[in-house]
Write a structure and sequence with these properties.
There is one protein chain. The chain has one domain: Orthogonal Bundle (Arc Repressor Mutant, subunit A). A hairpin with a 7-residue loop joins strand 1 and strand 2. It is mainly α. Helix 1 packs across helix 5, helix 2 crosses helix 5 and helix 5 crosses helix 6. The protein is built from 7 helices and 2 strands. The N terminus and C terminus are likely disordered.
Length: 186
């Protein structure tokens, strides 16, 4: 883990946040792969935190980034705890706990399967779809703010570059489980 300075588990020396040549300071050239990873993570975190703040102001007091990932997974067909667990790369037990929280918040409902009484099917409620719609509008506004900061053309170039580097496969919703799995392994 020494190759990830600044990560909490790293034993590498951390650069002073007050130095003018800090690699993550605005305007600095990123020269290391770990700097790029941290900048990408910081961008994600910045958008997610801002969106969460706005969603809270709209009355969605219980929304966390994982909430959006989970509701989107259910909306795209993860209609059982097992399937939700696979899509989020979390255990079936963690998926069941997530479902209970989503149900208590009114984002999903659980129905019995007409063909198999043992199965419980999950579906997104109107409230859940409204939360997704509101969050999409917020992310659109946040993107416009970023475009004002760096310029619309530059932001489109960044997005195109990231699409080229990351690929254009359907977006993966397993990031929360993926992050938690890797942290738990250490």
């Amino acid at each position: 883990m020494d190759n990830f300075p600044g990560f909490p588990w790293s034993t590498a020396p951390r650069p002073s946040p007050h130095r003018d040549d800090h690699p993550l300071r605005a305007g600095s050239a990123v020269s290391k792969g770990s700097d790029l990873v941290l900048l990408l993570l910081a961008g994600f975190r910045s958008l997610a935190d801002a969106a969460q703040t706005e969603l809270t102001a709209l009355g969605y007091h219980d929304v966390r980034p994982v909430t959006g990932f989970a509701v989107r997974a259910v909306a795209s067909g993860a209609d059982t705890a097992s399937e939700l667990g696979r899509r989020l790369t979390i255990t079936k037990q963690a998926a069941a706990k997530t479902i209970v929280g989503l149900q208590q918040s009114g984002y999903v409902e659980i129905d019995g399967d007409p063909d198999d009484a043992r199965l419980k099917r999950i579906r997104v409620t109107d409230h859940g779809f409204q939360m997704l719609s509101d969050s999409e509008a917020i992310f659109d506004r946040l993107r416009k703010q970023w475009a004002k900061k760096v310029g619309g053309v530059k932001l489109r170039e960044i997005e195109a570059g990231l699409a080229t580097l990351a690929g254009v496969e359907p977006l993966r919703l397993d990031t929360p489980g993926w992050l938690a799995r890797d942290v738990a392994a250490h």
